[in-house]
Amino acid sequence: MILPKDPVMLLSVVNTELRDRYPSLEELAKAYGVTEQEITDQLALIKYEYQPETNQFH
Predict the structure, then answer these.
(1) CA angle in degrees (0–180, nearest 5) for 5-52-13
(2) Which of 7, 19, 12, 9 is nearest to 43 (CA)?
(3) Is there a contact between 39 and 3 (Cβ–Cβ < 8 Å)?
(4) Percent of residues in the chain assigned helix, strand, coil, to nearest 5
(5) Matching InterPro entries, A to Z (predicted)?
(6) Is residue 15 pLDDT above 90, yes or no?
(7) Which of 2, 11, 26, 41 has the most C-beta neighbours closer than 10 Å?
């Protein structure tokens, strides 16, 4: 699966995957062949930041 380019769609996919399948953003990024920075930069466009204590973007 390829991650969506649209930040809102990306947020939905990433938070679902983090909740259901991956224990960390690092693991998710590796599985999708992208960097953590690519994901965090896209989601920063809509003012979301990764919260490691909840393993979610808020």
Answers:
(1) 30
(2) 7
(3) yes
(4) 55, 5, 40
(5) DUF4250
(6) yes
(7) 11
* Dmax (CA) of the chain: 26
Mean pLDDT of 21-41: 99
Q: Read off the DSSP letter of residue 35.
A: -
C-alpha distance from residue 6 to each of 10, 53, 54, 58 (Å): 6, 25, 23, 17
Q: How many CA atoms lie within 13 A of 3 on its CB side?
A: 25
Name the one residue in this structure whose structure tokens are 């930069």: 41
Nearest to 6 by CA among 14, 35, 24: 14
